[in-house]
Amino acid sequence: MSDYSSHRRKALDAFRHHALDEVDSTNQACLQLARSGDPGLIWITAERQTGGRGRRGRPWSSDRGNLYASLLLIEPAPLEHVASLPLAVALAVHDAIRAVLPLDAPPLEIKWPNDVLIGRAKTSGILLESERTPDGRQAIVIGIGINIVAKPSDTPYATACLSQHGAAVDPSQLFAHLFATMAEALALWDQGRGISKIIDRWRQHACGIGEKITVNLPDRSISGIFSGIDDKGLLLLDRGSLGTMPIAAGDVFFEPDGPRKE
Predict the structure, then answer these.
(1) What is the pLDDT of residue 11?
(2) 260 φ, ψ (degrees, to nearest 5)
(3) 261 pLDDT exceeds 50?
(4) Second label for 50, Cα 20 to 30 Å away, from 157, 200, 235, 242?
C-alpha cells in the first residue's frame, strides 16, 4: 500500500457511522450525542426524517430515496476559523455528487457559500449548527441533504435531483462517496489552517462570478455583481460607485438577465 493510500485509509478510519431507518432529524440526533459526551467524528444517516430542517428553520422535505446525513465534529477548529468550514463542506458534497453524475450532465457548480447546483438548479442543502455542550466543548453538526430521486417543488429557486440527470445511485452508495470526500476535505481544511487551499478549489467550481445577484439579508436585500470570495471566504459584492461589500451570510439569487460566466 502506498503512503498516500495508507494515509487516506487512516483518515477514513477516524470516522464512525450509525445508520438509522427513521429519525426526526439527523442533526438533532448528532446534537444529542454531543450532549451525552460523544467525542465526535460520527455520521448519522437516516432513510427518512420526520422533522428535517434547512436554513432559518425552513422545513426540508425528507422522503425515502434521498440522502440525509449529519456529521458531528467536536472542537473542530479555533472559533475564528470555523466560518470557513462551510466552504470545505461544499467541496466534499460537490465531489461526492461529481463521482456519480454522468460526464455529459449539466455543469456542477457551487453557489456561495455551500449550495451545490446542477445546471443552476439546487440539488443539495447544507445546514451547520453549533452548540456548547454541558461539559464546555464546542459541538458543530454538519447536516447534508441531497436530492437523489425526489426534489421539492415549493421553493423560490429551481431544484434538481440526481436521477433526472442520469445518476443511478442509491443513498447508501452516494453516502460512501460522501464519507470519503468529506474526510479528504476536512483534512485539506486542517482545522482552518488550510483555508487558502480550500478557497482555491472552491473558486474552481464557483457559480456566477461576474454576474448580477441579489443577496437577501435578515433585514434587507441588496444587489450588485458577484466578484468572488475573499481570502476568508466572504462573498464580495461589487456595488459600483458604492464600492465592494463583503458579506458573511445571506441567501444569493442570480438575476435571470445577468451576464454569464465564460
Answers:
(1) 65
(2) -100, 145
(3) no
(4) 157
Question: Who's near 65: CB < 8 A, 6+ residues apart?
Answer: 148, 149, 150, 170, 171
Residues in Cβ contact with 192 at an 8 Å cutoff, skipping those fewer than 6 apart: 77, 78, 80, 81, 82, 84, 85
Residue 91 has pLDDT above 80, yes or no: yes
Count Cα neighbours of 62 within 13 Å in the Cβ-side half-sphere. 25
Half-sphere exposure of 176 (CA within 13 A, CB side): 6
Based on DSSP, count helices (H) and strands (E) in the chain, helices before strands: 6, 13
Q: What is the pLDDT of residues 185-208, one digit of tens each?
A: 999 999 999 999 999 999 999 999
Q: Are 60 and 69 in contact (CB under 8 A)?
A: no
* Residue 253 vs residue 51, higher pLDDT: 253
Distances (CA, A) of 189 to 83, 86, 156, 192, 198: 12, 10, 32, 5, 6
Tell the residue number behind the cell numbers 472542537, with chain if given. 75
Please give the average per-residue pLDDT across 213-229, as a whole number: 93
In whole angstroms, what is the distance from residue 216 CA to residue 253 CA? 8
| pLDDT at res. 55 | 56
Query: What per-residue confidence (pLDDT) applies to 153?
Result: 78
For residue 18 the three cell numbers come to: 450509525
Length of the chain: 262
Tell me the pLDDT band of 262, cut-offs 50, 70 and 90: very low
173: how many CB neighbours lie within 10 A of its CB? Answer: 15
By C-alpha distance, which of 58, 43, 35, 46 is closest to 89? 43
